């Protein structure tokens, strides 16, 4: 989108507890045990963006629902759609 005249920041917000539940590689467990140092969200701070255009809570939405929310935002901003209100030509 940037080369076409805009930038949309999408923040995929996921609580650390949900990240741990989804962690198939056991990285969070290793970070909590001190095996992995400076692990974001455990021993290294994570700061959520305050200026995201779209925030998607992945704990509450399926991947398809999350994608739909992003598409709806892009449509409402005129980045995609039928072309009649598109920001790009």
Care to describe what's here?
The protein is α+β, with helices and mostly antiparallel strands and 89 residues long. The chain has one domain: Rossmann fold (3-Layer(aba) Sandwich), CATH 3.40.50.300. Helix content is 30%, strand content 9%. It contains three helices and two strands. The protein has helices spanning 16-22, 27-32, 63-76, and strands at 10-13, 54-57.
What descriptors fit this protein?
single chain, 89 residues, alpha+beta, Rossmann fold, two-stranded parallel ribbon, 3 helices, 2 strands, elongated
Query: What is the name of the CATH topology?
Result: Rossmann fold
Distance between the termini: 12 Å
Work out the number of β strands: 2
> Based on the structure given, which CATH architecture is correct?
3-Layer(aba) Sandwich
Quick synopsis:
The protein is an alpha+beta fold and 89 residues long. It has three helices and two strands, in the order βααβα. The chain has a single domain, classed as 3-Layer(aba) Sandwich (Rossmann fold).
């Amino acid at each position: 989108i940037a080369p076409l005249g805009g930038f949309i920041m999408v923040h995929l917000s996921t609580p650390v507890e949900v990240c741990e539940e989804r962690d198939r590689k056991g990285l969070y467990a290793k970070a909590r045990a001190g095996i992995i140092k400076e692990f974001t969200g455990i021993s290294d701070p994570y700061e959520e963006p305050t200026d995201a255009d779209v925030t998607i809570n992945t704990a509450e939405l399926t991947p398809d629902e999350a994608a739909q929310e992003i598409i709806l935002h892009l449509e409402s901003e005129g980045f995609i759609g039928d072309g009649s209100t598109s920001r790009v030509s």
